Structure formats: structure tokens, C-alpha cells
Amino acid sequence: MITLLIADDHPLYRDALRGALSLSLPSLTLKEAGDLMSTVDMLNKEDVDLLLLDLHMPGSNDLFGLLHIRKLYPDIPVAVVSGTEDTVLISKIIGVGASGFIPKTASAQDIGSAVEAILDGDIWLPEGLSESVDEVDEAFSELADKVASLTPSQYKVLCYMRDGLLNKQIGYNLDIAEATVKAHVTALFKKLGINNRTQAVLIASQLELEPPSRQ
């Protein structure tokens, strides 16, 4: 029996995926999660054969969720499911270890084909996109690996730094003390091998990280 985890914050889309997969792959056991924290909890508890990951669910926001999960669970294949079909972003998704990219506009047949291909060990991309996806360079891969070592809280601080917020403002937004923000900044500087906010902003911009969800 194959166990698949759908990680998406929209219940209607989870239902749609469940319906599509139940038709094409009735032997699957399907689990669900609605944010990054519950996804990690589920991966800790269950033997999951494939994760379908929404890039924009709370805590995940663009590449961080993928990087974080790939760091924690390198043996679990991950297919990114997204409404964004930008080839630059898709190249980065595949470059940092995703096993496939499934557009939210994909048909039930394509979703089933994607899951079967990835479970067989292949990389799956929609027809016509394979030729447009480029390999990421070594510098980006190293950068992504460093960002993967951040905790979700450190990642949120990094995003707010990119938006130009001061430590006091970051603390207010995250409901934590300014001293805690400073500790996060010190830790993320060390993990990223940098020593100032300008370098942090450049890193966040290169990874196309989005501001953290306030949900």
C-alpha cells in the first residue's frame, strides 16, 4: 500500500486532489496537512511514500518549505503543486531536489501519471515544460542548502529583514521580544555565512522567498 501526503492549506483543493487520485490510483492511502508544521508532524508519524507540497501554504511560502523538508527527509520524494508556472522557479524547484512539478491546472489524468512516474523514481514535469527547465548552478545549490538549515522562525525573520523591517518591527509582527529577534538574526547570519543585513536581503531575493504568511 502506497501512502501519499497532500500538504495544502485549501481544503477544496485537497478534496479535488483526493478525488483525482482516488479515480486513477484507488490503492493509495491519502493523508492531509494544511501547513508546514503539521506536514512535518505527519512526516514524523507516518511512513509517507510521496509528498505533494503546496509552495504557498502557511509556513512554506515559496522555496523554504521544500528546502526545509528536503533537509529533514531527504529520502521522501516531493512533488511541488503550485498555481505558479514560472519556468525560472520550476528550475529552482527541481534543482533543489523536488521529484516533480504539478500545476494546479493539471487534469486528473496528468496528476495520476505524475504520481505514478515519481513513485517509479522518475522526475515528472508537464508536457512542454521539460525543455524550458534549466539546471541551477553550484552557487545556488550551496545557497539553498544553507537556507534549508534555518528554522521556520529564522526564515520568517530573514523574510522580514528582506522587507526592510527593523528588529523592533519584526518582534511586533512575530509577537516575540526584540532580544529574541536579535538571537535569530545572529543564528541565521552564522548559518548563512554572512555578517550584515544587506547580504541577508540578497540571499532572500535570490531564493525568491515570499514574506511569511500572517495566518
Descriptive notes:
The chain has 215 residues and is an alpha/beta fold. The protein has 10 helices and 5 strands, in the order E-H-E-H-E-H-E-H-E-H-H-H-H-H-H. The chain has helices at residues 11-24, 36-45, 63-72, 87-95, 108-119, 138-148, 152-162, 167-174, 178-192, 197-206, and strands at residues 3-7, 29-33, 50-54, 78-82, 100-103. The protein starts with a strand and ends in a 9-residue tail after the last helix. Residues 211-215 have low confidence and may be disordered.
Supply the key terms:
215 residues, alpha/beta, five-stranded parallel sheet, 5 strands, 51% helix, 11% strand, globular, disordered C terminus
Mean pLDDT: 89
Strand order across the biggest sheet? 2-1-3-4-5
Tell the overall outline.
globular
Largest sheet: 5 strands, parallel
Number of strands: 5
Computed over alpha carbons, the radius of gyration is 18 Å
Low-pLDDT windows of residues: 211-215
